């Protein structure tokens, strides 16, 4: 895909898949309109970069549908300088969208090879646009328990499905901070936005979604995961 084709498919994606479905935050639209999604995909899938769906990536994981990235980012209400914890770096695409908006992102990934590939990718993209290299830090760890030493976070974005909202993540939210997380059983979840008000939490649901599972201490039990191996969901290739 050459630069001109990439730019034209991208602006079509922004208009039809994002703006056309109600994404209104101009910062989100601008960042996703700027970032070449094909650079985050395995080479054989680059041609599908602007299709309206999730795609498989390395380690049996997936990159979310562009609309889902747009919606989750908008629900975080990101602004320049905002401190965000992302759980599930995957390709680094979501982290890069936040970095282009000006956020400072700590992103945690449990698969070392995905984390390493995302670091390399953002470092090389960072040569052309230093925002991508300077504003994202990627760590290999179990993100289901967050990152206590760097808390509190103004935004927490969980890009893997959780059976319930992990308590450690709630505790690491700043007052007035937001969390966006897919919550529910492995076969399908609800996208939930949580806003912390002192010791209370306002929660709102934003419709159905399907994510690969969060694997960790504050996530699904072994039995649920074993059952999921037999579940013929949209991510047939999903593996732990
Ligand atoms: N946001 C990514 C896509 C994430 S896919 C992108 O933009 O490309 C979900 C990711 O969550 C997978 O890479 C998976 O390995 C990771 N993951 C699952 N459980 C995790 C955990 N407990 N801690 C950190 N990462 C986890």
- In this structure, how is the largest beta sheet organized? 7 strands, mixed
Q: How much is the average pLDDT?
A: 94
Helix content: 25-40%
What is the strand tally?
9
What binds here, in terms of ligands, is: S-adenosyl-L-homocysteine
Name the shape in a single word.
Answer: globular
Strand percentage lies at 15-25%
Helices and strands, in order, run as HHEEHEHEHHEEHEEEH
Q: Order of strands across the widest beta sheet?
A: 5-4-3-6-7-8-9
CATH homology superfamily name: Vaccinia Virus protein VP39
CATH class: Alpha Beta
Distance between the termini: 32 Å
The parts where pLDDT drops under 50 for at least 5 residues are: none
Question: What is the helix tally?
Answer: 8
Rg value: 17 Å
Protein structure class? alpha/beta
Number of domains in the coordinates?
Answer: 1
CATH topology: Rossmann fold
- CATH architectural type: 3-Layer(aba) Sandwich
Keywords:
240 residues, alpha/beta, 8 helices, 9 strands, binds S-adenosyl-L-homocysteine
Describe the structure.
The protein has eight helices and nine strands. The chain is an alpha/beta fold and 240 residues long. The two termini are 32 Å apart. It has helices at residues 3-18, 26-34, 66-76, 93-101, 112-128, 130-134, 167-171, 222-229, and strands at residues 55-56, 62-63, 83-87, 104-109, 136-140, 153-158, 173-183, 189-197, 200-209. The strands form two sheets. A seven-stranded mixed beta sheet has the order 5-4-3-6-7-8-9. 33% of the residues lie in helices and 23% in strands. It has one domain (3-239): Vaccinia Virus protein VP39 (Rossmann fold), CATH 3.40.50. The mean pLDDT is 94. The chain binds S-adenosyl-L-homocysteine.
């Amino acid at each position: 895909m050459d630069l001109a084709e990439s730019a034209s498919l991208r602006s079509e994606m922004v208009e039809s898949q994002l703006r056309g479905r109600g994404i209104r935050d101009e910062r989100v639209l601008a960042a996703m309109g700027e970032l070449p999604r094909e650079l985050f995909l395995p080479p054989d899938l680059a041609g599908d970069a602007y299709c309206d769906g999730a795609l498989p990536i390395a380690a049996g994981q997936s990159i979310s549908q562009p609309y889902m990235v747009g919606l989750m980012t908008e629900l975080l209400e990101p602004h320049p300088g905002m401190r965000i914890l992302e759980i599930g770096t995957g390709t680094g695409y979501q982290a890069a969208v936040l970095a282009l908006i000006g956020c400072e992102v700590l992103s945690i990934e449990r698969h070392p090879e995905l984390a390493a590939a995302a670091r390399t990718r953002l470092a090389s993209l960072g040569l052309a646009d230093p925002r991508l290299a300077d504003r994202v830090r990627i760590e290999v760890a179990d993100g289901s328990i967050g990152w206590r030493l760097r808390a509190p976070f103004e935004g927490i974005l969980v890009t893997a499905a959780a059976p319930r909202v992990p308590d450690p993540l709630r505790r690491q939210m700043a007052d007035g901070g937001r969390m966006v997380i897919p919550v529910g059983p492995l076969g399908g979840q609800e996208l939930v936005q949580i806003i912390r008000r002192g010791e209370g939490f306002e929660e709102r649901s934003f419709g159905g979604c399907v994510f690969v599972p969060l694997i960790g201490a504050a996530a699904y039990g072994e039995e649920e995961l074993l059952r999921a191996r037999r579940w013929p969901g949209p991510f047939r290739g999903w593996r732990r």
